[in-house]
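Retry 2 of 3 after timeout on previous attempt. Resubmitting structure tokens to design endpoint.
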């Protein structure tokens, strides 16, 4: 059962919070020292406090820029649960999630995140999270960062229409 602590932190229980965060830190330290990824670890626990996954950043090992700790933990938890819907779960992470990881957290229906370091802490050691947040603040109009162009909308809308007509599951 989730509760609010005196300091406003969402928690299942303080001992569990510490144990789970320590697992995330240990996993991050292990793979960081193996040069597999950065100092990022994450874990997902179920509504009853069961640890579903513990993962770390594996961007370097996997040659995959999306292999952040939170993404890896969410993927593992989804497999453990057999669903993409992680309602009632809590994400623990050694750093405030980057925009990509925040998006995945929201898509997974995870509504509680307990994090260690702040975005400015990641920025201070050279990670670009703040750079991406600034891009969003500029309404994605900074062409020195990213250029986007809409094209083939009608053809793509046809695909969307087919999907809707088939009454496929939304997620």
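Retry 2 succeeded. Sequence:
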């Amino acid at each position: 059962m989730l509760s609010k602590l005196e300091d406003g932190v969402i928690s299942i229980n303080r001992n569990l919070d510490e144990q789970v965060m320590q697992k995330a830190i240990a996993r991050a330290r292990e793979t960081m020292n193996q040069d597999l990824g950065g100092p990022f670890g994450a874990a997902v626990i179920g509504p009853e406090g069961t640890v579903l996954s513990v993962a770390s950043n594996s961007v370097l090992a996997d040659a995959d820029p999306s292999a952040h700790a939170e993404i890896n933990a969410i993927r593992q938890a989804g497999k453990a649960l057999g669903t993409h819907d992680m309602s009632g779960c809590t994400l623990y992470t050694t750093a405030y999630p980057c925009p990509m990881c925040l998006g995945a957290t929201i898509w997974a229906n995870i509504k509680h995140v307990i994090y260690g370091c702040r975005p400015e802490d990641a920025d201070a050691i050279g990670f670009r999270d703040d750079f991406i947040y600034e891009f969003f603040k500029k309404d994605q109009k900074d062409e020195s960062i990213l250029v986007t162009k809409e094209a083939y909308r009608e053809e793509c809308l046809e695909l969307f229409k087919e999907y809707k007509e088939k009454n496929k599951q939304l997620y």
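Attempt log closed. The mean pLDDT is 88.
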